[in-house]
Amino acid sequence: MTYTLPALPYAYDALAPHLSPETMELHHDKHHAAYVKAANETVERLASAETWQIAGLERALAFNVSGHGLHTLFWDSMSPEMEQRPSGALAEAIDKAFGSVDKYHERFKGALTTIQGSGWALLVFEPIAAELQIVQVQNHDGAMLLGSTPILAADGWEHAYYVDYRNDKAAWAENFTQMTDWAGASSRFDTVVSSAAA
Ligand code: MN
After folding, report:
1. Which residues pair with residue 121 across a beta bridge?
2. C-alpha to C-alpha distances, 2 to 9, 53, 75, 132, 156, nearest whole angstrom
3. What is the mean pLDDT of the chain?
4. Maximum Cα–Cα distance for the chain, whole Å?
5. Beta-bridge mates of residue 131
6. What is the distance in A from the centroid of ligand 1 to the CA of 50?
7. What pTM does this model have?
């Protein structure tokens, strides 16, 4: 198998009451698992595809592999240790790109809340400007900035929040902000910046 479902980095109930164990179990064991299964099946089907099948399978591969990657980052974007603040080089880059951490949070919550249909809000390092950007991704792979590396990912699909927040997407965005794992984000940021400079 090319792709494997990672274990959650914490227990199903670790993020309650912000996210219920029911949401976490469904989201990880059903939704994320389905993207991993479909990604592996698509890789296999591509190996023996007829020419006319390739375009459709490539679209399916982009959708499912991106879905797998985003969900893996999503679990690592949240922490049971609430109310963290960014520090170090990441905090400086956030100030440079957005003005302040609070302004960043407002922009990020806005991106997550205003997704039309299904998608994600991402904090990415964009290597051409060598700056942080907030990106609103359609489904899993639409409108992504080519070459950029996601640092944080917030799922804006209804399955991510509807059990716990119903139609109140703004409340989901606010709660995601409180759970943001800034320690993990800092280490991802340091890694991508050092490899971009190399
Ligand atoms: Mn999801």
Report:
1. 136, 154
2. 21, 20, 20, 30, 26
3. 96
4. 52
5. 126
6. 31
7. 0.96
CA of 110 to the centre of ligand 1 (A): 18
pLDDT, residue 195, reads 86
Residue 49: burial class (beta carbons within 10 Å; 0-12, 13-18, 19+): middle
CA of 87 to the centre of ligand 1 (A): 28
> How much is the average pLDDT of 1-18?
97
Range 19-198 classified under CATH 3.30.9.10: no
Q: Where are the domains of the chain?
A: 19-198
Question: Separation of 20 CA from ligand 1 center, angstroms?
Answer: 14
Tell me: the pLDDT tens digits for 96-149? 999 999 999 999 999 999 999 999 999 999 999 999 999 999 999 998 999 999
Tell me if 130 sits within 8 A of 196, measured CB to CB. yes
Q: What is the DSSP letter of 115?
A: -
Q: How far is the CA of 89 from the centre of ligand 1 (A)?
A: 29
| 192 CA distance to ligand 1 middle (Å) | 24
User: How does pLDDT run across 64-89, given as a tens digit for each residue?
Assistant: 999 999 999 999 999 999 999 999 99
Do β-strands 149-155 and 131-138 pair in parallel, antiparallel, or remain unpaired?
unpaired
What is the CA(159)–ligand 1 centre distance, in A? 6
Looking at 8-134, list the stretches that DSSP marks H as alpha helix, in order from N- to C-terminal side: 21-25, 33-47, 51-76, 88-98, 101-113
